[in-house]
């Protein structure tokens, strides 16, 4: 949707019906949305790591495993 908006703003700019500011604004909105997707993906990965650690699936390299009785 935002890519479409950017194309529309670019076409309007090329046709002389809009300023370069309108095109830049559409581009900024697209980049902001893409950045938010990356942030959400990173948060999901961080949450997976935290869950993995909470379930005991991670041991630091400097900690020896506890001996089994």
Give the SSE map:
Blueprint: H1 2-14, H2 20-54
Helix pairs in contact: 1-2
What's the quick description here?
With 69 residues, the chain is mostly helical. 70% of the residues lie in helices and 0% in strands.
Distance between the termini: 60 Å
- Given as residue ranges, the uncertain stretches (5+ residues, pLDDT < 50) are none
Quaternary class: single chain
How much is the radius of gyration in Å?
Answer: 24 Å
Describe the structure.
- With 69 residues, the protein is an all-alpha fold.
- Helix 1 (2-14) runs antiparallel to helix 2 (20-54).
- It has helices spanning 2-14, 20-54.
- The radius of gyration is 24 Å and the shape is rod-shaped.
- The protein has a domain at 2-44.
- The protein starts with a helix and ends in a 15-residue tail after the last helix.
- It comes from Comamonas aquatica DA1877.
- Belongs to the outer membrane factor (OMF) (TC 1.B.17) family.
- Pfam families: OEP.
- InterPro entries: MdtP/NodT-like, OMP_efflux.
